[in-house]
Amino acid sequence: MPAASAARTGRDRVAAVAGMVSVAVFAAGQYVAPALVWPEEQVGGVQRSFYALYEGRLLAEAILSGVAAGLFLLFLGGLWSLPERDGGRARPARVAVAPGSVTAGLVLLQAAVLAALVSLRGSELDVQAQGSAWAARALFYLQEAVGQVALFPFAVFLAAAAVSASGALPRWLALAGAALAVVVGGLAAGSLAGLDIGPAGQLVFLVVSAFVAVLAAGVGWPLATTAGRREEAVR
Question: How many structural domains comprise the chain?
């Protein structure tokens, strides 16, 4: 294997591992702590005790989300240089990088907001004594809004990655990714409209996580059905 090709393979595999690990870390962050409890839904004003009880787990969620976003950006670097066949010309699959970067940035912002919210678990969150403080309420709604908005660029990322990463995925899997992009976009619109997408959202989250992990793996280790095209594109 030529030195340039070996170096390229090494970079691809680092990006692939980063992508797969980012999926696992982000998923762990979503389940390490209970969901946030809105001020209006508190019974008896127990907000302060809730955050005192789960402070460590909520902070762990914020840290894991931030780490996952950083790893995802590293994966996008590999996707940026992924060759594909397009009209007989090899070109990088860069169209998915911009929406993916926006998604990672929003996840970082959401993690920062959650960390700030946990830091306000003291008197400002004592709804039993004084009602929800303005800072706490603002962070509650900002944290939720950022998560909803992030779904839109993520849907664009899924569609762009499915279309442009044909050198890493077989056609049927690329079509599945495009279909998932439509579903994620629909869930994003539904959540902004106030629809309860909880159960459906959890199922889609798991399926999309699996797709992104497979996509990441395909960057470093092309599937058998695409390996020939990948080698041809690299030349």
Answer: 1
